[in-house]
Amino acid sequence: xxxxxxxxxxxxLACAASALALAVTAVAASGSASASASPAPAVPAFAKTVxxxxxxxxxxxxxxxxxxxxxxxxxxxxxxxxxLLHGTWAxxxxxxxxxxxxxxxxxxxxxxxxxxxxxxxxxLNGQGPLVKSAGEVSAFVDKVLKSTGTKKVDxxxxxxxxxxxxxxxxxxxxxxxxxxxxIGLAPDNHGATASGLGTLARKVPGVSQVLxxxxxxxxxxxxxxxxxxxxxxxxxTVPGVKYTVISTKYDEIATPYKxxxxxxxxxxxxxxxxxxxLDVSEHIALGLIDRIAFNEVKNALDxxxxxxxxxxxxxx
Length: 316
What we know:
With 316 residues, this protein is an alpha/beta fold. It has helices spanning 12-30, 42-57, 92-96, 99-105, 130-148, 164-172, 197-203, 207-214, 216-221, 226-231, 272-275, 283-288, 291-301; strands spanning 4-5, 62-63, 82-85, 110-113, 153-158, 179-185, 242-247, 267-271. Strands 4-3-5-6-7-8 form a six-stranded parallel beta sheet, with helices on both faces. Strand 5, helix 6 and strand 6 (179-185) form a beta-alpha-beta unit. The two termini are 29 Å apart.
């Protein structure tokens, strides 16, 4: 495979919270009830600043990661290729720079993509409309299946990429027959309140319109959005897919954290503090660097060879 640049993780949480806060403040301060007077410039201006910071953070040495190797053929031990889906205000390299090489080392064929791109936020993806992003995931899964000659993939995703995005793909785009396991790290399965900020955004007149125009992927994930209403009008699970939800009680984006959990057959809901009380990971850390969570990802991918997850898993 061709070499890839190594990206340094950017402060995704701060970006998301700041964008919501900016939208709330800007619309409330304007005194406009409709936000009809050119609402779009405020967030794009902020977006360009964030994008500039994100681009500066991506400078680094070129490394060969071992994933997105289109000549990889799954082994009998790991017959399903693994598709990794990043979250909002993120990209595949920032999110999976530790997880992907580790799974490759375990013998998996591993693939990832950047989806939900907006032109004024380069490298900070997952912000386009979720329906469109689900179409991108659908096409990518088909590409992986064709390349590997397999019938199903396992999906591991963080935040949006571990919950509403793949669930929509499976429920509304005939993706269920192509997925064996869905493993979500801090997935906002039933919408996010962002510690109340998202709920406030929906109450301040005009903010929803601002978000919908500028960062529709964020708007789609707020509790009560039309996207979430449609998604959660269906049962949490689809037959034949095995689900694992890995959460932290210190999550401040996909809140309340228990709303991440799914109900239905073939579901395992895990809270990392139940495995190690010392784990203090929040939303972003759970997906990027939490080795307790990662051990549970490995267990979910290969339950026949699962190993106990304890505080010692953080240093193993």
